[in-house]
Amino acid sequence: MSVTDDAIEAIKQMIVDGELRPGDRLPREPDLAERLGLSRNSLREAVRALSLIHVLDVRQGDGTYVTSLEPSLLMDAMGFVVDFHRDDTVLQFLEARRIIEPAATAMAAEKMSKEDIAGLADLLDALGENPTVDELVANDLEFHRRIAVGSGNQVLSSLVESVSGRTQRARTWRGITQEAAVQRTLSEHRAIQQALAAGQGEVARAWATVHIAGVEQWIRQTLVDNV
């Protein structure tokens, strides 16, 4: 487990044990970090992660609160964090992505219009300098959807969209917990777009393979670390 995962687990345990209830305010950051034996930085990252999935509510100038969800719904939200830690099905979807999407990307280099390829660059530009993880993942899904459509094969496009959507949670969690994941994703998307713009089908295929394999490798390691 990463340090951030340890911090998330510690906060989660406080909620499960009833020490923190929906609507409760978390102790001050330095006090909670000392109590849990965590650095303030790792605790801060854990709070940020849990706020993204609506387990915690960070109120500027007021403090951080457990959301007012019913306990059963709160535990469902926590399931978001651990679903792919406990089930390697997501790996099968990523393996399928690694086989299907590079082929669709290579086809798109031949069939996608220049305007649509330029639109991919505009899509990436729209994220700005420091996108949130949620913004990145939404942009990521749209980026890959457009390329699949650009392959000109409707069956292949439908397969890519179906398989890609099933890995959304894992991609979100990677963006939250893996250092530099956001910038790496943006860099690889740029490389794919530039290869498409240059009509370099095999280069685009290679970058798509590297891009998807990176997520797959991270999740494999995550599963190993949590066995």
Task: Describe the protein's architecture and organization.
The chain is mainly alpha-helical. It has 2 domains: 3-82, Winged helix-like DNA-binding domain superfamily/Winged helix DNA-binding domain (Arc Repressor Mutant, subunit A); 87-225, Up-down Bundle (Four Helix Bundle (Hemerythrin (Met), subunit A)), CATH 1.20.120.530. 74% of the residues lie in helices and 4% in strands. It has helices at 3-16, 29-36, 40-52, 71-86, 89-111, 114-125, 133-150, 154-165, 168-177, 181-197, 201-225; strands spanning 56-59, 63-66. It has a two-stranded antiparallel ribbon. Strand 1 and strand 2 form a beta hairpin. Helix 1 (3-16) crosses helix 3 and helix 5 packs parallel to helix 10. The radius of gyration is 20 Å and the shape is elongated. This is GntR family transcriptional regulator. GO terms for molecular function: DNA binding; DNA-binding transcription factor activity. It holds the Pfam family FCD. Keywords: DNA-binding, Transcription, Transcription regulation.
